[in-house]
Every structure is written in C-alpha cells, then in structure tokens.
Write a structure and sequence with these properties.
six-stranded antiparallel beta sheet; 153 residues; globular; alpha+beta; single chain; 26% strand; 4 helices
Amino acid sequence: MTELSLLNEQLSALLTNEHSAIANLANASALINESIDNLNWAGFYLYNSKNNQLDLGPFQGKVACMHIELGKGVCGVAASTKRTQIVDDVSKFSSYIACDSAAKSELVVPMLKQDGSLYGVLDLDAPILNRFNQSFANEMEEFASRLMVTIDE
C-alpha cells in the first residue's frame, strides 16, 4: 500500500459516523498536513453560490486569501472547469494569485456534489517546484471523493 493509499484509508476511518462538514474538512486538512511532506498549505475553498466565488474554508498553513473569483488563480480555474489542476511552477501560471510567496507548485482538486455541482476545492501548495504528478493527483481526487461522501448526503 502506498503512502497516499494509506492516507485515504486513514481518512475513511477518521470520517466514520461523522457528518459535520466543517469538522470533516478541518480534520482532513490536518491529516494531509501531518502526513504529506513538502507542503506549506493544505485546505479547502468552498463555493459560495450567492457571490459566485470561492470562500476560504478549513486549512492548515499560513494566512490565506479569503475570496477567489471563479476562473482566477489555480483554485478558480479548477472550480470553473471542474478539472484538477497540477501546476509545476506557479510563477508560470498566467492568473496565479500569490497568497504566499513561499508557494512554488500547486495542486487543486475540484470537489463535486453527487449532482455534479461544485462544492469547493481541495488546495495543496508546496515550497518546491514540480511537487505534484498525475499519480499524486489521482490519490487526492480519491481523497476528495471519500470526503464528499460524508458531506453530500
């Protein structure tokens, strides 16, 4: 079992019989932060349909941007396209939003409800270039999917 597969199993155990979205998101960000090396931010932005933007949710790391427009930055692009974004070098991402100058690479996974609508995004920042690859992204998509089962019931 890979380290990330184990992380997904740990998440499932952590979420058993727990249905508070905020508690689950908070513990999920703490689990990622404790378990994965070379990260400097792990957390969630939640979709605010009233303002059509992402709002800061539970996270682990430095102070973060509080609101992100859809289509702007890595999180906003992932949210608007509903597609995972792997950015090897954030300085080369045209609409990058620099919330933390120490971030060098980023992975953002959209979190979708059962009906396919946007719930939010899982956002991971790393202090090194090329931190994330497709295999890592696949495991984080599984992580987000397991988390959504407890939120979207």
